[in-house]
Amino acid sequence: MKNIYLCGFMGCGKTTVGRQLAVNLSYRFVDLDAWIVETEGMEIAEIFASKGEPYFRQAEQNAIRLIGDQGNTVIATGGGAMVNAANAEAAKKNGIIVYLDVPFDVCYERIRGDAGRPLVQLNTREKLEQLYREREILYRAHANFSVQADRTPFACAREIIQQFRAYIAPMHADEPV
Question: Mean pLDDT throughout 40-61?
Answer without folding.
Answer: 90
